[in-house]
Amino acid sequence: MHRIAIATAAEVSTLDDEGRHLLAALVDAGLEVEPAVWDDADVDWSSYDAVVVRSTWDYPRRLTEFLDWAARVAERTLLLNDVALLTWTTDKRYLLDLERAGVPVVPSVFLEPGQPTEHPLLGLEHVVKPTVSAGSIDTLRLGPDDPDRSRGLVEAIHATGRTAMVQPYLADVDVSGETALVYLDGVLSHAMRKGALLEAGAELHDGLYAQEQIDPRDATPEEAAVGEAALAAVAALPERAGALPPLYARVDLLGSPEGPVVLEVELAEPSLFLDLAPGSAQRFAEAVRRRLG
Question: What is the pTM of this model?
Answer without folding.
Answer: 0.95
